[in-house]
Each structure stands twice: as structure tokens, then as C-alpha cells.
Amino acid sequence: MCQSNSFYEHVDKVTNLTNLPEIDAMIEGVDDVITNSWKRCMEDFQLDPSHSVPAHILPSNEIIEHKDQIDKFLHVARIGMEGLYKQVSSLNYVLLLTDATGITVDYISDGKFDRERKNAGLYLGADWTEERSGTNGVGTCLSTQQNVICHQTDHFHAKNIGLTCSAAPLFDPCGDLLAILDISALQSPSAKEGQLLANQMVNIYARIIESANFVIHFSNSWIIRFTNTPEFVDVATDNLLAVDGNGRILGATQSAASNLKHGAKVKDIVGKSAIEYFECSLDELMGITKNSKHRANKLLITREKHELFYAGMIEPKGVANQTSVSMYKDYNFKPLEGLSNKDPLMDKAINRAKRLIDKNVNIIIGGETGTGKEVMAKALHDSSQRASKSFIAVNCAAIPESLIESELFGHKAGAFTGASSKGNKGLIMQSCGGTLFLDEIGDMPLQLQSRLLRVLAEKEVMPVGSNKAEKIDLHVVSASHRDLRVLIAEGSFREDLYYRLNGAILSLPALRERTDRGFITMNLLSQEARERGISVKMTNEAMKIILAYEWPGNVRQLRNAIQFALAVCEDNIIKPEDLPDEIFESNEHMVQSIEGVLPTIPDATENSESAQYPFKIRKLLEALQQSQWNVTAVSDELGISRSTIYRRMERYGIVSPNMM
């Protein structure tokens, strides 16, 4: 393919830079930020400016992982991005938001040239680090952590010299780089000065997003905002300082830090008292409120620069917004909180679930078979404002393919042979105002996936045999033990439906990974006992066996085992011989190895709180035995300190044979 003269001129220009003696040497028309980046690309990353590197777009599963890392921030950033896009939508710009690793986690465009933009990397999932993509707005902004204009021939790779990019860094409330906001275009006028306004706007909206995230992050703390102009006190966003009740600085914007101390970074002032930087007492500082009627109470003078600022105070939510606090308290989180007893993995899923309640976001619940996906979906429903309406659970793998369409969407009377003479409302319509739980969504036939996609997009249902759609208030929670992204790659699941369903993902841990298996066991035992109207106990020996087993079928298998034990036990006391044979067939060695070593477990009754047990013991014991009780080797293997291992051995009653 023939290359233009500008291509070769650019390659020569970049390549010749390596012959310059000084690293900060200037090239005509190129500033030192760009030349330094070119040198990094040539010398550190061994990149070739003539090499036409295709845009690197991450697969969807990796994009989701990157988005999950800054999930809460993405919602704040999106609002700011939409505000910026309204200002530039007519100029063919694309907005990109990348995380701190340079991966694009959100973008906004008009959709007209998305194929060309994707080829150029102006797309979701693109990797814009300098190491991967050479000098560019995002990558160079990541490296320098300052505003960057990378216009046309500023780019390292010759294939990118048509692009123009303006990028601004976004920092978290503790001063660490959090994201990059970028505005880019495939084509633009040749003069770099024409991008100054775009760069200014990106910087303004980056600070707006940063400040909004700061206020949300410190919503339970006192936030001091200060500015040189009294009229703008109540809307100031640049200088924000979060403090506790004792005036200790919890966080700050970079502008606030540099105004308090010349050259200071946020981390330099966090943890120190605010009165170290203002000429006032603690009482005077905490006396500044946004409702103060006395102008004198709003004046602050910095100790180092003796600069005068007008200040206001945003009070913690618990003080200033009792209404919103009480509304939050009105949520009934007991159904969700009852699913865990301080298990870290499950608590993470529950905390995310709480934030998603009543947010009108469709949810996918992932996890192995039997981990309790329907139980989680029902708890989400019962904790929401939809709890008074129906929870409709549909197992897409259990309904015959010939019936699933009419079962889901309903049908009119006589719509087909065998149809009900009165018609059928359909499970989707039955869930109106409540929650529709689609279990094993991956087994839904492709034809019905298209119909479900239409329902989700238009919020209306067309029953079989009808020519009139019916509006519906729909909230969908779906689940699958299979990886839907694999099914998409195989062509058996629609990617557009996946993204309609995937407003958020909740991942449930396998039972073997959970630290509260005793709690789960006793909960299940209590439920089964209540249904039978009996009081049940479990011996220490039986509990030890249950705790040592891997449970490949997860909670469902554990419930089946308890039901079996209740059916065969005598005097309502579950003993080892009452447990299913399958537990012993694969676990005999484990049971024998821990017998006599585990600490005594109190008898378990229907009171679920009586069976709390530290399950790290099994992994620790195995490691100790395999290493011939070499604590140093176990420390290296498990990645925990020797002192921690000794504490756990003492707590669990594990004694080395060498000490007996």
C-alpha cells in the first residue's frame, strides 16, 4: 500500500529525535511534553513509528472487569460526560473515559462513524497506554498526569497523524490518579491552536466530575469549600477539603492542597489538622456553615501565603439531610443481610446488591450451580420497593421449547392448537411492577432472545396471537451458571441482549470458598426443622464432616444432604452415619486427618447463630501437613506472616506433632 509523503516525513521526524543529544531537546513545532513521550516510546518501549499497529480492543469480559474496579465513579463520570458532549456533539468529537491503566471504560459518540472510530481505537475497551499505542492524548496524560493536547503529527505512530486528542487527568479524593477524560476526533483543522478550546472544556468538566465524586465520597464528613469570590462560595468546586469533627483532613482536591501549601500534593496534607493551614481556631473552623448569617464567620486566611478566602461548609448527610437518611433506613435489608455471616466474598456481593436496589438496573447473577442465585434474586426483590408485587421465577431450561414463548409472553384465546380458551397472561406480564427472575438465561432459544430484547428495549409485551402490545413495568434479574460471554462467542447468545440484561453483575461464591459454612448449615437445618415442626440437633462429629467436605453441588447439595439426614436420623439428632454416602466416598481421608485436631464445636440446634466456625483451618492444616509442619514454608505458600500462622494454630487448637 502506497504511503503519503506526510507519513514518511513524520517517521523521519520521530526517528531523528533519537540522534539529539539532550532528552529535552526541542523539535520545531513540537513541545517538550511530546518530544519526551516520543523518546519514551523509542527507548523504553522499543516502538517503531512506521509500524501500523492495529487498535487493541479488549474482549467484553475484560472490559467488565475494568469497569467493575471503578463502578461507583463511572456513574458520576457519565453525568459529566453527557454534559460535555452536549457542548461538542455537533463537532464530530468522541468522548473517552479511561481508567488509570489506560483502558477505555466509557465513551460517547453520535454513532455515525463507529466502525472507523473503532478501527482507530476511539471505542470502548481500547488500550491507550503509551507502551501499547505510542504518544497519544490519554497515554501521555497518564504518564505526565497533566493536561495534554496531542494533535495530529504529535502522535508517535504515523497511522494516527490524522487524529486530534485533548485529555485531562481525574484524581480520587486522596490524590491518586483515577481516570482520564479525553475528547478526540478522526479529522480536524491542521492548526493545533484550534484545539485549545476543546482542551479547556475537557479540563473544566474533568474538575466538575472530580468535585462531584469528592462530595459523594465524603458525604458523611464535613466538607469545607473556599474561593476568592464571596458570591461563588455556595457553588465552589475547585477548592474542597474534607475534615472530621476534630478538623483532621480526610481528603482534598489538588487545587485545595496547593492553595494551603505551596507545591503540596493531596497526600502531603491528609491526616493533618486543617488549622495548621488556616489562621483560625478549631471552633472557628467548624463554626463555618453554609447557613451562617455572619459574613465574618466565612473568612479564612491561609498561614503560609496569608491569602484570604471565603468559605462555606457542606454538612454530613446525617446532619443536613435527615430526610434522605430516613429514606435509606426505610429499606428492609434483612433479606439480603440474612444471606451471609461476615463472609468477605458474600458480603461484597450483598453490599453491591444494596446499592442497586430500586436503581432500575437489570442484574445478572453469576455463580456455580446451587450457589443460591434464585435466593439472592428473591432477597433483592424483598428488599426493594417492588416487594409488594410479584416475584416471578422462570427456569428457561425447564420449560419445553415449544411452550416457552407462550409461557413467557402469554397468548390470546385460541391463538394456537391447545391454547387455553381464556388465554394466558404470560409470566412477563405477571411480573409487572415486581421482579422477573430468568434462571439459566443462557438456555433460552435464540428466537425468543430476539423477542425478549424487544420487550426490554420498548417496555411492552406482545402476546402470541395478538396484534396489540401491552405496556409493562419490568425489572429483570437473570442468572446462569454458564459464562454468557462464551455463549456469545459460540453464537448461541445475543451480545445485544447480554448488554441489555447486564446493567450490573453479582457474583456468588461457591460454598467451598465461603467462611460461614457453619452458619449456612444451621440456617438450612433450622428451615427444614421448622417445616417439619420439630427440634433438631447435630453432633460435633457430623458438623466436622460437613465442614470438611467440598460440596461440588454447593448450597443445593447441602440442603439435599440435610433433608436426607433428617429422613433417616433417630431421635432428631443428626450423626455422621445419617449423612449421605457420597460425602464419605470422596472425603474419607480428610475426615480422618482432622479428627482429634479440630477444636470442639458446640452442639448445633435450630438456632443458626450457634454454629459459627473458622473454615481457614482446613487449608492451613493441609499446608502444615504437606510441609512437615515447616511454618516458614507455609508462610511463603499462603502469603501470610509466620506470626499470623502461629496465632491461627493457637486459635484453632492445632498442635504440631513435634510439640506433642
Question: So what's the overall shape?
Answer: globular
Helix content: 40-55%
> How is the biggest beta sheet arranged?
5 strands, antiparallel
The CATH C-level name of the largest domain is: Alpha Beta
The CATH topology annotation of the largest domain reads as Rossmann fold
Helix count equals 29
Number of domains: 4
Look at the structure and give the mean pLDDT: 83
Strand order of the largest sheet: 2-1-5-4-3
Query: What structural category arises from helix and sheet content?
Result: alpha/beta
Q: What is the beta-strand fraction?
A: 5-15%
Low-confidence stretches: 290-297, 320-329, 587-615
- The fourth-level CATH homologous superfamily of the largest domain is P-loop containing nucleotide triphosphate hydrolases
CATH architecture of the largest domain: 3-Layer(aba) Sandwich
| Amino- and carboxy-terminal Cα gap | 79 Å
Radius of gyration over C-alpha positions, nearest whole angstrom: 31 Å
Strand segment count: 19
